[in-house]
């Protein structure tokens, strides 16, 4: 194989080696790669490199752990971080609260049944056994100090931080009940304040609610564990002439591993032998297997479906794509959004609302001569007002959204970006590698006396020994047509001219204008419109005569057409920005139905273009993949990086598409809109429930004979948490497949009319 004959000034040729992960021009890496097919400028042949980076998140990003909604969750087993610490800590929380719930439930049963007040309520008499009256106080004290410890320590933390919330409310309620019950037991306070049974039920119900909540939050983090499980337990490493079985963690850069049919790739690397259809759905969300052969990159955790591969490892451990995805999901689950901050503030407001309501309740009921009833009502108010569901409403929705997104091939690095995506009214796409494949393809064929297939077969024979993108495009076109490519001999390459071979005794040359000038030949007139559209024109010369010409251009993705149509159906304007010349850009824009095209934009000016759109009042999502897109991605209201792009672009974006399918932008929009809808539903349910229930707990309906018991209030409060959690879980039912999203977009009501904007 030789690259010597290639020289189309192609920038950023695809890199497969781990040492070539930065965007460089071909001239920087291959001094022999000059335009030997004849002087086409970079504007005609912009070809930026694309690779799935070994380090997905690329650069350290600021981690902003969310405020703990429930204090520190410290239990008898030790300290447990709040809900902001998504990930492995939730597994500990689940086990802790499950154990606390069942043990305290066992203690609560005799506490309730042997409580004098509870016996009086149900009308049964306690056995006359010495010491039996002390069972409820003794067990109630254990329940308060042990089962209630997570709430008490959380209350202390909130009090010290001067950030009142749910833990302080629960801690206050159970402490008041505990003190009042001991007062009644010792005869200091009225017998009617014997709340041991209510204290036991309250703590058990709160533990149950927290157990369910922790289990839900642990399920939202299961994507991280599932991603880790994608790696095989063993890897088959080639060691000289033998194959040894090793742990994937022991692999080093440069090792060659065998991936057998049906086996998982143990580490990121390059295929050095074999070809197979690889299932990458767990990484990209693409359901169809992708053909991978020698020179192609494969990602750890993907599956070789039908054939064996030999892969040279070029990334291990924390440098793999899979590890990067795990970091992105974890970072997204720990980031704080505006909606989440609003919920935190609402919990604080609810504390003061409950406290003031409790004070008013005590004052009013004490004024009418029932201080004991006033205390009972005040305790019930404090229980009902606990913002348990409110604290869960936002974090659970966003956490499930980011996890669901990860399984759909959308990696949310900044949850605030996902939140903003619902209001985006303009999507600005980079062209090369985003709307187009970033690779040349044969678009037009013209001949002068032979058939199209024969011309293409001869050109493919001439280019068979080349690795240049244009050569690969010609051979790929011949392969797709099912042509038999004849064997070529005497391969020669000439800088800035082209290549020549001998095929069945005929001299065949492929090149650009310089080849024609050298042979004293004229270009075919039919090729002039091709050049006007920005295509690269290569002529095929057979035995000194022009046999035909090929027009090559960056191939537009079929998925791009569907993405643009679907975005239009949602009422969103679609624009394109590129450094290409205006004819090239307009051709792509016209083909896709783009609303506005910005052509000939220098990399440093892309961000100012985004800023000018924002200055017009537009909310802009920028979709790009290259180093030159990074400033624009950072400037946009939402930066969306194509996952096959560069580390710099990914570091500048808030959302990353694991695949290069532009229809994945619809996934982000759908998730943002559905997530916001669930947030509103949960906030209305949680806050509305609290606001409506507090007056009932205060006893406003007591004059008509209805008094809300404290234990019923506690049960209803926990049920509100279950409702919020169940509503958030419905997000898991979202179908984020490209086909479903495009169909849904066309079926959706347009947000508003689009007005025509001339091309820039």
TrEMBL record:
InterPro entries: ATPase_P-typ_cyto_dom_N (IPR023299), ATPase_P-typ_P_site (IPR018303), ATPase_P-typ_TM_dom_sf (IPR023298), ATPase_P-typ_transduc_dom_A_sf (IPR008250), ATPase_P-type_domA (IPR059000), HAD-like_sf (IPR036412), HAD_sf (IPR023214), P-typ_ATPase_IB (IPR027256)
Entries under PROSITE patterns matching the protein: ATPASE_E1_E2
Location within or outside the cell: Cell membrane
Top-level division of the source organism's lineage: Bacteria
GO CC annotation terms, alphabetical: plasma membrane
GO biological process: copper ion homeostasis
Domain P-type ATPase A: 230-329
Composition bias, Basic and acidic residues: 1-82
Transmembrane segments: 100-119, 131-147, 168-189, 195-212, 346-368, 374-398, 683-706, 712-731
Keyword entries, A-Z: ATP-binding, Cell membrane, Copper, Copper transport, Ion transport, Membrane, Metal-binding, Nucleotide-binding, Translocase, Transmembrane, Transmembrane helix, Transport
Membrane association type: Multi-pass membrane protein
Molecular function (Gene Ontology), one example: ATP binding
Region (Disordered): 1-88
Statement: the UniProt record of this protein carries the keyword Transmembrane helix: yes
Family under the similarity heading: Belongs to the cation transport ATPase (P-type) (TC 3.A.3) family. Type IB subfamily.
UniProt protein name: Copper-translocating P-type ATPase
Species in which this protein is naturally found: Cellulomonas flavigena (strain ATCC 482 / DSM 20109 / BCRC 11376 / JCM 18109 / NBRC 3775 / NCIMB 8073 / NRS 134)
